[in-house]
Amino acid sequence: MILLDGKKISDEIKSEIKVSVEKLIRKKERPPHLAAILVGDDGASLTYIASKIRSCDQVGFKSSLFRYNSDISENDLIKKIEDLNINREIDGFIVQLPLPKHINEQKVLLSIDPRKDVDGFHPTNFGKMALGLKSFIPATPYGIMKLIEKYDIETEGKSCLVVGRSNIVGRPMSILMSLRGRYGNSTVTLAHSKSKNLAELTKKADIIIMALGIPEFLKYDMIKKDSTIIDVGITRVEDKSKRRGYVIKGDVDFDSVSKKAKFLTPVPGGVGPMTIAMLLQNTLDARL
Amino acid sequence: MILLDGKKISDEIKSEIKVSVEKLIRKKERPPHLAAILVGDDGASLTYIASKIRSCDQVGFKSSLFRYNSDISENDLIKKIEDLNINREIDGFIVQLPLPKHINEQKVLLSIDPRKDVDGFHPTNFGKMALGLKSFIPATPYGIMKLIEKYDIETEGKSCLVVGRSNIVGRPMSILMSLRGRYGNSTVTLAHSKSKNLAELTKKADIIIMALGIPEFLKYDMIKKDSTIIDVGITRVEDKSKRRGYVIKGDVDFDSVSKKAKFLTPVPGGVGPMTIAMLLQNTLDARL
Fold first, then answer.
1. Residue of chain A with shortest Cα separation from B195
2. Residue A98 preceded by cis peptide, ω within 30
3. Which chain A residue's Cα is nearest to B106?
4. How many CB atoms lie within 10 A of CB B91?
5. Active-site residue (options: A5, A117, A119, A231)
6. Rounded to two decimals, what is the model's pTM?
């Protein structure tokens, strides 16, 4: 079994990004600048944002965090976004999701200038991706494609099962794996909450991308020998033996699946670190 | 076997559209206005356009055809499109494809105002569709979804195989069938030119959408009993016994498949007439 080492690959990508930033600085140009909007004080959101800001520091990006109270109106939030859209010192920005319930998430995402939409959630970017055009690809699917590329995993004509149809992981993954290209051309099946006989589907797949959110769902007897298994799951499972009171579990039963799969991502250290690296990559691309 | 009668259903839809137009007229408002841009004099394109204009007449729409020589520059064509974008008398317009080779099709499509893009080919509309938002849906996939709805075909949890990954039929179909909704929620597999063992995939599918372009490819022994078969193929096959010298064949061997399928579209008279009806529907929606 070959471990798809997202930690290592993401470090390599970040090093390459850092070199690009240093080139800009030598040319007396300003470094890329990523901004983040955070509404409210959700704990998980704060953790994600802190991690993104830390990564910006690592590669020499400038970063800005704009925080608003959870009672900000939809209109006011959209005005803030419009300010960022026209701010020439900011190359890309993200709106940390989820937003409070009184705010229409789609309306907010639509107000982002697609040229600064480094999360790739705007319909124009999503549509370009689906049509096979150049665009900002959402960071998690982009990171998975990068892992597949770096480990040179054969995808053409392979059966690929994507489990989960979210707009940020499953749906874009299903599209990317079936596009024409060196690391596409798979025969993709997209399974979701209404799918039946999931275990029959997993058993037949050469490549499985799990974005289901059920800890350790995928087990030894549900997969094909020598398959590629990508685990996007990150669920907090209570564990009183740990100081923080929980452990992070993926959708894959790592211990058993690792005895049968050919390629497998660990959790943590697989898809997670790739996601942040690709957000940085999108921001660099927005700058250049 | 139940025939999915696209001719009949499209006539019903056109009648409903006509009623909506008459309401507008009674309110002293102008009828919907569809414009088409045709570059060059490709025979098939002329036939399609003529048929679209005739359908506009049937339902009381105004229509305009803008024809340009095949040597028009890309820039000049885009200028014509920009004129239509701001023309307040035109609700929607289409650019008949294919365009001459010296013109970048994607660049041209990107210049269309998404609010007038009744073909639904602009990335913004395509992305909205993929994200489950309201948008103009490309006419052929929209017509197929309408057939499924009108015949109340069960789709939830069913396995659906889409054969062909074009941006105008296969790709959007694969997305629409797997979206949440009364006539979505299928477990969709998208097969294409790089897929292997196509006959194994077709045999397992509850619903097959064929957009392959190989006449009479799908035969009796390749399908499951009581499946739903939608045939998007329209290939001209030479037939000297016919006055025009050819017959139109679908991707499905109708005679044999009709003995085993539960629902089946004929060719012609299935998906084809639905496509034009849904283009009219999109134009009406653009007017309202």
1. A157
2. yes
3. A133
4. 24
5. A119
6. 0.97
